Amino acid sequence: MNQWAAAFAWIFDPAHLGGPDGVLTRVGEHVWYTIVTLVIAVLIALPVGLAIGHTGKGRTLAVQVSGGLRSLPTLGVVTLLGLWFGIGLTAPLVAMVVLALPPILAGGYAGVDAVDRNTIDAARAVGMTGGQVLVKVELPLALPLIIGGIRSACLQVIATWTVAAILPLGGLGRFLYDALPLRDYPQMLAGSILVIALALVADGLFAVVQKLVVPRGVLAGRVAQVRVKTARPHAIASTVGGRP
Amino acid sequence: MSIKKRGLIAAGILAVGALALSACSSGNPLAPGNSAATSGSSGPIVVGSAAFPENEIIAQIYTQALQADGVQASIKPNIGQRDAYLAALKDGSIDLVPEYTGNLLQYYDKNSTAKSADDVYAGLSDALPKGFEVLDRSKAEDKDSYNVTETFSQKNNVTSLADLKNASVPLKVAANPEFAQRPYGIPGLKSVYGVNATLVPISDSGGPNTVKALVDGQVQLADIYTTTPAIKQNHLVTLADPQNLIVAQNVVPLINKSKASERVSSVLDKVQAALTTEDLIEMNIKSSGSAKESAEQIAKEWLASKKLFS
Fold first, then answer.
1. How far apart are the first and last CA of chain B?
2. Is B202 touching A (CB cutoff 8 A)?
3. Radius of gyration over alpha carbons of chain A, in Å?
């Protein structure tokens, strides 16, 4: 219990709050690193994921590659890339993007994959092109799963940026790496608490976003589907009958 | 699994030791010349080592040197950190272990301010617990050191920490994060040599990322252990430390007093006199990278090259 009190006291100690190596700066750096990582990862993984989901091609390859990426030990990747790129931000950024790719990719293709084939057929039937189907039908319907993928990536990225502080970087990992050799456990616990708090806040935000992005039509459709079931044969019969 | 295995090996060593001991008392026909009878009466010696390659190599050298002189010796390598092998020395499961003067002194005397090789060694004899003894210290040292690139050294005419004041560029030091607080780190550089430097924290204890930052010119100075092969491989210049900012860390055998017979001491003194920091670097190169020779083999080669016991 004492350790916890010491850790919270450490966080709210005015001496630790401000300044170039204070809590606020470190939290800001951590958020910044996380955003940059996610933006890059989304730009790479989402188009690929959507394409796989839309065409149905390359899924096996994507599953295998992203599975392989998942198994890379991030600390090792950071160290190795550090030997390549030097001590800047590039090495850890690449390592974190690699970490964030698989869940975003999976969210992309699984989201599109999960769209009801009837809906897509209907979209084609009203004359939509492939691109229109993707952007106007598949993407909105897949959004909850896509956001879910980014949400999962975000949590991993927030947690894992800490290990990148093995190189001279900012972020919350600094508190862990700086305090360990000095056996300053309150500071280490404080750093961990901040990471957890940041992750919870981010996860909460994503939960709200995930809820907001579900298209109204999908919600309405879910209710309607139950009603429609009995009426369906009629409807199909009438359209089929009506066409020629 | 491995702990179990190690336990078995340890048990095996003990069993062999016990056999050897009982054989001794009944007049071992394999025992070397009669001169051993007086000095070798304290039984076989078990040499322990810390869990890192360099220490194991030195332990192998001690063991093989003792054996070459006819002293019964066996090795129990990779025991762990200082706490672990000092406990083993205390409970008698090992009798001898290669140590480093500065760290050993500060382990027993946290308030010690001794820095130079002589002061540290002198302080040790007072600080050591009863029943422990250190033999001669070696010139060979494994300690933190400030390193610069050859180019930086020539361009700024810097070969010593005292020269750094004249360097015109702002100085950045790549080192572990604790370097910001340690007396031999940033604060000491300021108070002892009047040099202002900022820390670039890299948590690999002078490993490849630190060396890369130095070689790339992202930092001007790097804290690297003196026996690291990278110093030689990258032609780095280790800066002299005339004011003893960094505590001396000479290699020294820490031994159970009851085992420190004249014969054992004289063998180890010979080894200690011959061992250099340069040797440690060479041996660390052999034990790392593609070569990856065993500690036993490296020790054998070193003893052969020094011709101490031929």
1. 41
2. yes
3. 23
